[in-house]
């Protein structure tokens, strides 16, 4: 089923992000510390009173998406983690942020059981640092019409500081993820993109009569949101997640996440051929099938259609991400299953590829 909390998080960000640029309350910070005795890393992005990001335990290194705000609990940042494969509310963080230090609690469920202390400081084992650049806005199609439909636009991305060779290469990758063309700083480019979005919106609907706009308001309402955030960062791998949402009328909007994994030393994206040897590539599809079945508790004899897929096969695509422990493949809604299934992520530990499955240079 669709992770409706994920879609709700996007909706909340659309609302909370409207005043972010005006108030200047946005940043990206990375933390490392412990949950109880377990080392973990948190990548957190702030937009006014809203927060999104990923966290992962050092041992597993499988990023978990989270979002929240600093208004639900006075003086605290409250984050809800969305654990793949679950529909219940699990893993809530309640945190105090002082400078670059976090303290607080991680709670397994709403009963307060398994309540563990959290303590973290700045992540230090990284070479790149980032700003967080945001632009947003909303406009009415016919301002003088009381019930006029409107459009909203929001774009946010991490942006490397400095102009080293790695930073320059990475900026090009980020522009591609954000669908931004041009040269120079990302801020003016995003503003120009926003201007084009509203100009196209007005142009497309300029001849629609007022009576139709009033009767079919949702049919002329548009929203466009795209955020690029840090999912994973180590000395050898930086993984970026571009989450986009678009509504152009109809029953629901469309969303999806696309990834880019980069070598921080060069700022260049890893290709699948950089990661897997010929033997690893040969085994890839069978390992995707194996791990999908494992995560969905599907036996080797059962059809993948039993888990909701369109077909009885699942193969690798180009939308993959890397961490220190494995490679994940993401399939957006409608790609291999219905919209109600949501995004499908299949994660393969590197150990599944055996001794010769990874390229020696990458493995090193």
UniProtKB/TrEMBL annotation:
Limits of the DUF3298 domain: 274-350
Residues in the signal sequence: 1-20
Source species, domain of life: Bacteria
Pfam families: DUF3298 (PF11738)
InterPro entries given in the database record: DUF3298, PdaC/RsiV-like_sf
Gene3D superfamilies found in the cross-reference section: Fervidobacterium nodosum Rt17-B1 like, Heat-shock cognate protein, ATPase
Transmembrane segments: none
Keyword set, alphabetical order: Signal
Protein name: DUF3298 and DUF4163 domain-containing protein
Organism: Terrimonas ginsenosidimutans
């Amino acid at each position: 089923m669709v992770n409706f909390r994920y879609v709700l998080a996007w909706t909340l960000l659309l609302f909370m992000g409207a005043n972010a640029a005006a108030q200047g309350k946005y940043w990206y910070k990375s933390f490392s510390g412990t949950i109880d005795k377990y080392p973990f890393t948190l990548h957190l992005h702030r937009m006014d009173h809203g927060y999104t990001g990923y966290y992962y335990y050092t041992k597993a290194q499988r990023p978990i998406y989270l979002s929240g705000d600093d208004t639900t609990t006075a003086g605290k940042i409250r984050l809800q983690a969305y654990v793949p494969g679950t529909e219940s509310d699990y893993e809530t963080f309640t945190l105090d942020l002082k400078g670059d230090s976090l303290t607080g609690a991680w709670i397994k469920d709403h009963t307060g059981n398994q309540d563990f202390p959290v303590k973290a400081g700045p992540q230090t084992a990284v070479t790149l640092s980032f700003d967080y650049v945001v632009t947003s806005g909303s406009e009415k199609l016919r301002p003088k019409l009381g019930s006029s439909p409107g459009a909203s636009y929001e774009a946010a991305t991490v942006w490397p500081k400095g102009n080293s060779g790695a930073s320059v290469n990475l900026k090009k990758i980020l522009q591609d993820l954000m669908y931004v063309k041009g040269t120079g700083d990302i801020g003016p480019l995003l503003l120009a993109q926003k201007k084009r979005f509203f100009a196209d919106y007005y142009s497309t609907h300029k001849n629609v009569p007022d009576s139709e706009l009033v009767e079919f308001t949702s049919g002329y309402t548009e929203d466009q949101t795209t955020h690029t955030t840090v999912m994973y960062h180590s000395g050898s791998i930086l993984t970026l997640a571009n989450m986009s949402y678009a509504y152009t009328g109809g029953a629901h909007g469309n969303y999806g996440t696309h990834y880019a994994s980069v070598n921080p030393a060069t700022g260049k994206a890893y290709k699948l051929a950089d990661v897997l040897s010929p033997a690893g590539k040969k085994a890839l599809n069978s390992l995707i099938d194996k791990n999908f079945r494992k995560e969905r508790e599907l036996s080797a004899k059962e059809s993948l259609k039993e888990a909701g897929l369109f077909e009885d096969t699942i193969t690798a695509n180009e939308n993959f991400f890397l961490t220190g422990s494995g490679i994940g493949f993401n399939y957006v809604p409608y790609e291999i299953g219905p919209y109600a299934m949501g995004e499908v992520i299949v994660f393969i530990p590197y150990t599944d590829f055996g001794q010769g499955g990874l390229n020696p240079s990458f493995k090193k």
